[in-house]
Amino acid sequence: MQQQGRFNPYHLIYDKLGEEIESYRRSEHISIRTLAYDARMNHHTYNGLRTGTDFKLNYYLRLVYAFSVNSEKEHFLAFLKRLMRIAIQEICGILKTEMEWWMREEL
Q1: What is the pLDDT of the chain when averaged over all its residues?
Q2: Is residue 56 a contact partner of residue 23, using CB atoms and an 8 Å limit?
Q3: What pTM value is reported for the model?
Q4: d(Cα 69, Cα 53) in Å, to the nearest integer?
């Protein structure tokens, strides 16, 4: 009987989430300093989220909050929709499943 190893998420990198976060920050002209202050995180943590190597849900929630207070409502909601779609794509890629069920649904 072959034992299955314990899942180790530390080898995962979320490229597209980080790209979307950085792209939105630049498009809204939000400085990293402002974003880090409002999200209550340091620059190192933000860089980890941007590069996709840090993936703690708490940090993403803080970041979403910081974007919400520094953006117009319509821009923020469009960003949030894109971010959720990318997150689902990344998760499906990790699980090696298709996204057909998600594509049928509107967010």
Answers
A1: 81
A2: no
A3: 0.74
A4: 25
